[in-house]
Amino acid sequence: MEVSELVLWIIAGSAAVTWIPRVLPLLVLSRMKLPEWGIRWLQHVPVAVMAALLAQELLLTDGRLSVADNAYKLLAALPALAVAVYTRSLFGTVIAGVLSLAAFRLFF
């Protein structure tokens, strides 16, 4: 299989476009002294992003709100949420979510 120079440039450009937005804020913010309110605000970003991603996956079907179509996903999210709150383990949360979703799909 032969890879053309254009494909290599596209891969390099894609890598740069992915890498720069991740590294640039880290480099800039690591040299600055952030105020206490800014640090507190930034601590909420991961939770907000995760909530937005989960809400979209659990509540929307084909771009519209549909709780009835996603009932098994919502039910499977409850054990995963309990494991997340109790253990604070990402691995445990994922395993609980996958197993409960598989069980709901198998039995219901």
How is this structure best described in words?
- The chain has helices at 5-30, 36-43, 45-59, 71-87, 90-107; strands at residues 60-61, 64-65.
- The protein is mainly α and 108 residues long.
- It folds into 2 domains: 1-32; 43-107, no CATH class.
- Strands 1-2 form a two-stranded antiparallel ribbon.
- β1 (60-61) and β2 (64-65) form a beta hairpin.
- α4 packs antiparallel against α5 (90-107).
- The chain is extended and about 50 Å long.
- The N and C termini lie far apart (47 Å).
- The model has no long low-confidence stretch (mean pLDDT 92).
Question: Any key phrases for this structure?
Answer:
2 strands, extended, 108 residues, mainly alpha
Mind summarizing the main beta sheet?
A: 2 strands, antiparallel
Can you list the strand order of the major beta sheet?
A: 1-2
Uncertain runs are none
Broad shape: extended
Topology as H/E string? HHHEEHH
Rounded Rg: 20 Å
Calculate the mean pLDDT score and round it.
92
- The number of distinct structural domains comes to 2
**Helix/strand-derived class?**
mainly alpha
**Beta-strand segment tally:** 2
Proportion of strand residues:
under 5%
From the N-terminal CA to the C-terminal CA, the straight-line distance is: 47 Å
Fraction in helix: over 70%
